[in-house]
């Protein structure tokens, strides 16, 4: 059985809640095969991020060259971009593979609020959108990426470029019992989805959503269908969240294939 291959360029989170491991799990759970480049190393746990170290571009180029000599890609997923040099590298990759579906998760801060890409100027990620199929910002990321004074003008600026923009609403008024996600393109709303707000705080929900979209686009789904299916998968992953440490919950990305703590192999 063959699976579509998704090239992932994201930061490494040692907890597995976000970053490369989160992307790999979500892609695998949605029928894809992840090949990964770590754009940054981080020191973090379920309470937050302590440090971020961008990967030298020479190392990323060598890794990508080795992959390209052997494996064909079907889609691209972009996560954490921690400095301007890595941003330039990512831009070149997206331009080279502009015919492939691609998803940008514009990581600005951790789920607990620590800055993740403070060495990338506000608005710099916007330059990638001419070669990106879909971007999945929350409202804070939307405003930083667009450098707009409000959400409405931010959506106008970003959706005027090539990318479809899926704005997630989990960071909007946490007192409400529903969360709305909205897809925009060419300055107009394409579709809205509403989900029950889950209790608790989660680490890696944005990575899970974006990586799922990339896998589904690689399998031939339309953008609307990929967004809808990825939201459904992500909501259930959060519903089956795992309390690994004392801070945020981790998405249970293999919720379709539950394994209890008491199960074991007889081998």
How would you describe this protein?
Helices cover about 30% and strands about 20% of the residues. By secondary structure, it is α/β, with parallel strands linked by helices. The longest helix has 17 residues, at about 225-240. The chain has one domain: UDP-N-acetylmuramoyl-L-alanine:D-glutamate ligase (3-Layer(aba) Sandwich), CATH 3.40.1190.20. The protein is globular. A nine-stranded mixed β-sheet has the order 3-2-1-4-5-6-7-8-9, sandwiched between helices. The two termini are about 25 Å apart.
**Main beta-sheet annotation:** 9 strands, mixed
**If you consult CATH, what is the topology?**
UDP-N-acetylmuramoyl-L-alanine:D-glutamate ligase
Which class best fits the helix and strand makeup? Answer: alpha/beta
Silhouette = globular
CATH level 4 superfamily: Ribokinase
Mean pLDDT score: 91
Question: Which blocks of ≥5 consecutive residues have pLDDT under 50?
Answer: none
Distance between the termini: 26 Å
Number of separate domains: 1
Strand content: 15-25%
Number of strands: 9
- CA radius of gyration is 17 Å
Task: Provide the descriptors you would attach to this structure in a database record.
31% helix; 7 helices; 267 residues; nine-stranded mixed β-sheet; UDP-N-acetylmuramoyl-L-alanine:D-glutamate ligase
Fold blueprint:
Blueprint: E1 5-12, H1 19-29, E2 33-45, E3 48-54, H2 57-68, E4 75-78, H3 84-96, E5 102-104, E6 134-135, H4 139-146, H5 151-159, E7 164-167, E8 178-185, E9 188-196, H6 205-218, H7 223-239
Parallel strand pairs: 1-2, 1-4, 4-5, 5-6, 6-7
Antiparallel strand pairs: 2-3, 7-8, 8-9
């Amino acid at each position: 059985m063959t699976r579509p291959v998704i090239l992932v360029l994201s930061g490494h989170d040692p907890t597995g809640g976000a970053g490369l491991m989160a992307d790999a799990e979500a892609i695998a759970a949605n029928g894809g095969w992840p090949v990964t480049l770590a754009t940054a190393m981080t020191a973090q746990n379920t309470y937050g991020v302590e440090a971020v170290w961008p990967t030298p571009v020479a190392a990323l180029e060598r890794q990508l060259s080795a992959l390209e000599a052997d494996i064909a890609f079907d889609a691209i997923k972009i996560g954490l971009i921690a400095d301007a040099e890595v941003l330039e590298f990512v831009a070149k990759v997206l331009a080279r593979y502009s015919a492939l579906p691609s998803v940008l998760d514009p990581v600005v801060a951790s789920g607990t609020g620590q800055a993740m890409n403070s060495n990338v100027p506000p608005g710099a990620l916007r330059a990638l959108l001419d070669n990106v199929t879909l971007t999945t910002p929350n409202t804070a990321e939307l405003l930083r990426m667009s450098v707009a004074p409000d959400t409405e003008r931010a959506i106008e600026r970003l959706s005027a470029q090539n990318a479809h923009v899926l704005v997630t609403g989990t960071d909007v008024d946490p007192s409400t019992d529903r969360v709305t996600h909205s897809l925009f393109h060419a300055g107009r709303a394409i579709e809205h989805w509403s989900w029950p707000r889950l209790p608790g705080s989660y680490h890696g929900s944005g990575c899970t959503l974006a990586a799922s979209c990339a896998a589904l686009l690689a399998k031939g789904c339309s953008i609307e269908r990929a967004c809808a299916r990825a939201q459904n998968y992500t909501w259930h992953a959060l519903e089956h969240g795992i309390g690994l440490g004392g801070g945020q919950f981790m998405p249970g990305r293999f919720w379709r294939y539950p394994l209890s703590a008491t199960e074991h192999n007889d081998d």
